Amino acid sequence: MMDDSVHKNRLYAEDVTIGYDRRVISTGLSVAIPDGAFTVIVGANACGKSTLLRALARLLKPSAGRVVLDGKTIADYPAREVARRLGLLPQSSIAPDGITVADLVARGRYPHQSFLQQWSDADESAVIEAMAATRITELSHRAVDELSGGQRQRVWIAMVLAQQTPILLLDEPTTYLDITHQIELMELLSALNRDGKTVTAVLHDLNQACRYGTHLIAMRDGAVIAEGAPRDIVTAELVEAVFGLSCVIIDDPIAHTPLVIPRGLPAMSITS
Amino acid sequence: MSAPAQASVFGYRVSAFGGKLSGRLDLRSVAVCSVLLGIALVIGLLSLASGDYAVPLGDVLKALVGQAEPSVQMVVVEWRLPRAALASLLGAALGLSGAIFQSITRNPLGSPDIIGFEAGAYSGALLVMVALGGGTLTVAFGALLGGLLSAALVYGLAWRRGVQGFRLIIVGIGVSAMLTAFNKFMLLRAQLEVAMSAAMWDAGTLNGLGLDRLALAGMILLMLVPACLLLARPMAQLEMGDDAARVLGVAAERTRILLLVLGVALIATVTATAGPIGFVALVAPQLARRLTRSAGVAMIPAAAMGAALLSAADYLAQHAFAPTQLPVGVVTISLGGLYFAWLLVAEARRQ
Amino acid sequence: MSDIITSQQSVRVSAKRPGLAETNARRWFWLVVLVLVLLAVALASLMIGSRDIGARTALDALFAYDDSDEHAIVRALRLPRTILGVGVGVALGMAGALMQALTRNPLADPGLLGVNAGAYFAVVLGVSLFGLSGIGSYIWFALAGAIVTTIVVYVVGVVGRFSGTPVRLTLAGVAIGAVLSGVSAGITLLDPTSFDRLRQWSAGSLVGQTDAGLLVVLPFIACGLVAAFLVARPLNAIALGDDLALAVGVSVKRTRIVVIAATTLLAGAATAAAGPIGFVGLMVPHLARWIGGTDQRWIFAYTMVLGPILLLVADIAGRLVMRPAELQVGIVTAFIGAPVLIALARRRKVSGL
Asked: What is the interface pTM, i.e. ipTM, of the complex?
């Protein structure tokens, strides 16, 4: 059950039942996103991690229970207010035909603007900072559809950064990125976290999760089966339970966080 | 007071009242819109001056301010002005409606004339003409009602926990096909003269519209257009996908419904005033986009382009084959044909 | 260690494929059943009309003709109409099946994609501007119109910057079709006699073709069918994607050309004979796929039988709904087909859209 310390956090889910159409993914799920931590949610495909993230971001309405942001049910806020406190990088977004990088990143300032105040100094500096942080400043005048998959992903991340929210949620942000850019992004998220942002990401790569995350949430079949610091919870038994993968855990020689080495699956024979 | 406009990769920044009012302008868009509106104005003045009874430009201007002789006054202000003004106004409404639909469906071909609206308006008009034998005002009302009902039907059938672009398009095509079949059925049952005049109505015409129509259309558009402009920014956000828009604070479904209502109301106004005028709503936003090199579909350039296009089309309809007056819809259909021809060439060249 | 796949568990290619009929034997069975249904429907088409004629009499009219009124009606009016219905039904169904297979678009239909509108437009040009009459002369116009439209829609909707999804192809077709229909309507407005003459036909109708007319049209349809069956197997590969098809050795380009040619022949001939009739090409392949599975050869076989069944049923319905007047078959197919289209769009898992 939930202990009171959870309620001290800005963002948490309280006893939520969430799903799509008639398919229920999670029932009675309670989980908190610790303030100031770099939380990583891991689990096998279709375990409910993205569903949870979407519910936390107010994209999915729980059929039971509630998500709480800053002490109030998140559904009770005006949408723009939520957008000022919480930013989400969704899994798939569409770049309007022909839009430039600068314009797309600028779209992230929407929650801070209004019909009369469409562009202020704060907006401009936020966008410039976001582009610098994701190292896409040289691309600012280019059309987004001309960029590579990795570059495009960085543009979307810059857009979320331009929103300048204290809480950041990212749904599989390392898709399409090559290894260098993946590490760059994880370092950036770490830096943002050290600066004070609460960062939550759904990641596929367990090792990256262990190395950069300060708080891990491991899910299976819509339920949280372990949460805590990677060093504390990542064991061979956990990996077996979450992924069904037999492994050996060693100490990462660089970061001294758990490093998962899969044992491999039993040899398959395709000839008789 | 105002800070000087500064240029950057974000366009020209303008601000006033110490930042209470601020925005950014894309110079190219502003220039394009001004030119297009200028073209519409010039063509309008030209229509006021030409015709069976040619009026020198000076007299036209005098008539506009009420300083000309009564006969010139009547020709310019009572006969020609409504038509010229309506060409620009209705053209702008069509362009705006097209921009809204294309943005919502995220598809450059998602135009209200294809997605069920015009077929419905024609159904309403036919019912009045064939079954009730009504006059022009009742026909207009019938068209309006028919269009609105068919739009509601399309939306209702496309709704499935929200309306996605592709479903709106396909359901729209389906409803349009059914209504078209229904219209053909009504045409076949009518007597030849009624059928022919109904078919002519379907081609759309600005002929014979007076100041009263101009006033009515003008008043309605005066209410609709500002509402559209207020929704311009949320509409742009929606183009990034529902998730991205909602995360930024846009109420996606509600905005979409509002935009649809406005888009339908705009085209309903046009259809009720002048009959169905096709292809301006399809072509204007895309042409405007090419010229301004903007991202996505923008409302004001689309409206300006629509005004210019319909003014030009109506001018051609009136004077190209003088003294025969073509229905303006015939000219705009050719516009549609040219547009596709141009698309073909552009595609072929891209290969 | 845990499971190792043993020789006993080797993978076997199942004879079962998706579709109501799970084995080839069942497919043949249903095909035969449907052929019988077609014969029954054809007989009904000979029997039903403003004056109902008994089955015995109808059959006698075919095989033991005496000059009675009823026999004359059957021979002179209903028989050509029925044969035309079969021919046009086959042609439209196959054209739809071909287009759906080539473009991997479940919504492709020669009516929706403007091909019929193009053929019709060309015929209107022929009739109004060049004073052509008799199907023998304007069939060539119809074919020309069909092929030009097919290519235009293809370039704009599949290859062009608007491509990528089936919706775009459909929209391109509808838009181009709208232009062509509009211009056709405009042309007919210029001349009241042609307006009157063509308004019957613009809704799609099986009435009014002579035996000679049938003889002109049927060879084109036959050629189209032959071409279609030649590309049935390549189309199976193309269903998996152009790249995969190339990898298996299919010449995608050649298949495309053959399909375009076949569609032109089929849709052009059908429209020349009966005016623009939509939705047959949309609905029939879906039904064929539902019964017969995903092998293109079976889809074609079923389409050839289901197409005429659908069209004749629509024609008969048109005769019954407004007795003694008639409702054109094109109108009936639109009333049946449009809801099908809408239902397709509403399906939760809309594949390919």
From this structure: 0.86
Q: Does A270 touch chain C (CB under 8 A)?
A: yes
What's the pLDDT tens digit per position in B97-130? 999 999 988 888 788 876 677 788 888 888 888 7
- Contact assessment for residue B128 and residue B144, using Cβ atoms and an 8 Å cutoff: no
Question: Residue A17 CA to chain centroid, in angstroms?
Answer: 20
**SS3 sequence, A209-264?**
HHHHCCEEEEEECCEEEEEECHHHHCCHHHHHHHHCCCEEEEECCCCCCEEEEECC
Check if the beta carbon of residue A201 is closer than 8 Å to that of residue A212: no
Q: Do B329 and C182 touch (CB under 8 A)?
A: yes
As to burial, measured by CB atoms within 10 angstroms (0-12 exposed, 13-18 middle, 19+ buried), residue A147 is: middle
Contact across the interface for A110 and B237, Cβ inside 8 Å: yes
Which residues lie below 8 Å from residue C8, measured CB to CB, with a gap of 6+? none
**pTM for this prediction:** 0.82
Q: Which residues of B touch C337 (CB under 8 A)?
A: 177
Residue B324 CB-half CA count within 13 A: 6
Q: How far is CA A267 from the centre of its chain?
A: 35
Stated length of chain C: 353
- The H or E element spanning position B44 is helix B27-49
Collapse the DSSP code of C16 into the 3-class scheme (helix H, G, I; strand E, B; otherwise coil) and give the result. Answer: coil
From first CA to last CA, the distance across chain B in angstroms is 52
* Nearest-angstrom CA–CA distance, A134 and A188: 8
Count each helix (H run) and each strand (E run) in chain A, helices first: 10, 12
Q: How many CB atoms lie within 10 A of CB C236?
A: 18
Token look-up 């000309």 returns B68
Helices (H), A114-226: 121-133, 149-162, 179-194, 206-212
Please tell me which of the candidates A266, A270, A272 has its beta carbon nearest to residue C1: A266
Q: B28: how many CB neighbours lie within 10 A of its CB?
A: 14
Q: Tens digit of pLDDT for each residue in C255-270?
A: 888 888 898 899 989 9
Interface membership of A21 toward C (CB under 8 Å): yes
